[in-house]
Design a protein that fits this description.
Elements lengths: L15 H8 L5 E10 L6 E7 L2 E7 L8 E8 L4 E13 L1 H4 L4 E12 L6 E8 L2 E5 L27 E4 L4 E2 L17 E10 L2 E18 L6 H22 L1
């Protein structure tokens, strides 16, 4: 039997873009654009009340997590409802100037003091172009100790909730779920805050502490310097010459 001749095909030279990818990754990633936080609630807060009830925030200097906190009192009579919107006037981000928002991370500590049912509906709020938007995810201050917002106590067991990677679709106006803020590069200034809401007839009091908002943008790919491109081109050329030499 004649010997078999095994021909090994030379490997093709990798494209320059592939080599570049080994040195620098150009894949988009999230970048932290701005962070807003408040654990003292001393100033810089404004309020908007929507509905027929009342919502009042009072700064308490002790008993928070660990010290000062906001105590929110919502009062409604039979057939009434109320949304207390609280905005931190210095927590402003403008997508048209600072870059489009890829996502938002939100956190707060909450504690329930007085009332019944689902305690206080709660979550992140923001205002853009004079319009208030609130977080769509149902969340409540139904914890008797300081901790995260919880799922409904009416469908036990209540579970702690986290709010990461929020986009514009996660927010809507109080009256129209189809209206969302503009996180694109065309978006106007956004002021961040939180809300507390109640309905029916009751007085409900809950606290908020360690309010936190992080705005994430899409990081631009890292451009390769001209010298790196030249070096990569040289590597590709050497690879090609070795291929031709082996083939001959």
């Amino acid at each position: 039997m004649p010997a078999l001749a095994l021909r090994v095909a030379p490997r093709a030279a990798p494209p320059l873009a592939v080599i570049a990818g080994l040195v620098f990754s150009s894949a988009s990633s999230l970048a932290e654009a701005a962070t807003f936080a408040d654990g003292s609630f001393a100033d810089d807060w404004s309020s908007i009340v929507v509905g027929t009830g009342t919502s009042v925030a009072t700064r308490v200097t002790s008993g928070g997590n660990p010290n000062s906190y906001f105590s929110i009192t919502n009062v409604t009579d039979p057939g009434e409802f109320v949304y207390g919107i609280y905005l931190k006037t210095t927590a402003v981000y403008t997508p048209s100037v600072e870059g489009a928002i890829a996502s938002i991370d939100y956190d707060e500590d909450a504690k329930f003091f007085l009332g019944g049912g689902n305690r206080q509906a709660a979550g992140m709020a923001l205002r853009q172009n004079g319009v208030v938007y609130i977080l769509n995810t149902p969340a409540f201050t139904n914890s008797a100790d300081w901790g995260p917002l919880m799922s409904s106590v009416l469908t036990p067991p209540p579970l702690p909730l986290t709010f990461a990677g929020l986009d514009a679709e996660d927010f809507s106006t109080i009256t129209d779920a189809s209206l969302h803020p503009d996180f694109s590069v065309n978006g106007g200034a956004i002021t961040f805050g939180f809300f507390r809401a109640n309905g029916s007839s009751n007085t409900r009091i809950a606290g908020i502490d360690n309010w936190f908002v992080r705005v994430n943008t899409v990081a631009a790919p890292i451009p390769l310097p001209a010298t790196i491109y030249a070096q990569l081109a040289g590597v590709a050329l050497l690879w090609h010459r070795r291929r031709v030499s082996r083939a001959g």
